[in-house]
Amino acid sequence: QVQLVESGGGLVQAGGSLRLSCAASKSIFGIDTMGWYRQAPGNQRELVATIITRGNTKFADSVKGRFTISRDNVKNTIYLQMNNLKPEDTAVYYCNAIGPETGHVEVWGQGTLVTVSS
Prior knowledge:
The protein is mostly beta strands. It is 0% helix and 51% strand. A hairpin with a 6-residue loop joins strand 4 and strand 5 (46-52).
């Protein structure tokens, strides 16, 4: 079973930037869809961005124009570049993967905390 490990979270001031990484324990070439979700205290987990094997991306309206997602199939890693961060972006960010390499079962990382101060 593939395992996902996120890194890159931390404390940043509003307007700042962070880059999150999600490293997979095996090849992501066969993982159709990988993405980032987030969960703020008291809220449900929500989609932030996804990227498929061919590179097509999808973003939540709240992050469009500020976040970008990319994948490196050689390093088995996906990234979330977050610019112009806002206090409402504060949340635990989780990496997600689903595809043939995961047995078509969703796999989640342990999460990384992003805190944006005003």
